[in-house]
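User:
I would dearly like some help making sense of a protein record. Take your time, and here it is.
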Amino acid sequence: MKFEGIYTPAVTPHREDGSIDRDGFVAMIDYLAAAGVHGIIIGGSTGEYYAQSLEEREELAALAKDAIAGRTALIVGTGAIKQEDSIRMAGFAARLGADAILVGSPPYAVPTERENALNALAIDRAADLPIMLYNYPGRMGVNMGEEFLDRVGRSRNFQSIKESSGDVNRIHLLARDYPHIQMSCGMDDQALEFFAWGAQSWVCGGSNFLPHEHIALWQACAVEGDFAKGRRIMSAMMPLMRVLEQGGKFIQCIKHGVEMNGLRSGPPRPPLKALNKDDKRELEQVVRVLKATVAAILAEGSAVTPLRAEAAE
């Protein structure tokens, strides 16, 4: 499988009592597929998998499969503390007909690289699907280092890695020494650096409510190779990235962004709380400026194209 484009880790809409808003979820998936994202991830941290039962996670994956209706790729997250839970999710993804699975390190256990690799290989055997690894040592406590990558590389299914360490040296390592594992940006404020080093995909929570702007950056850098344009788009997006990362309110900001688009997302599940009024106003202002700036950049490109065509005649 070629992991190319924008992959959205979809949010899980909730009602005020914390129950899943299934109609809202289906509407969310339909919106993303219609917007042209290249894949949708169900059961990622942005979707609050850690606060869901396995039954809820399976139901959401099945709902997403039906709502996508073949319009884009479906990736099912397998993250869990217990190996048997990850294996269960992997097996379910295979039976469901998912396009790939997302495999991270088990949180809290702090396995060695060998133990972590054996865990990932066990999950692989349960699904036999293309795998996007998820390296996020800040949340999981361990890094998917060279020993880990060498061991899992023995299986053809480990095809991509969402790199969320924040360490630029990891970008260099993956690009130079592991070119057979497709590198995917998992650190939003480093998207430009990832694309410069050959990444073809970006897993970005912000695409839940700004899919077109995220696609525009990917298009400029990964498709057109126009990094001057890419830098301008990235510069316009940086204030959003700062807001998303400040104060540990990433999911809350994403969910409010979805509400700004007229879709239902509701509050996050405890222990998280929805944004306060000041945080909402700040996000809304940043998004307004971002949309206007990116639209102006893209309009410039559209205006230049006809002139070039006339010159060629």
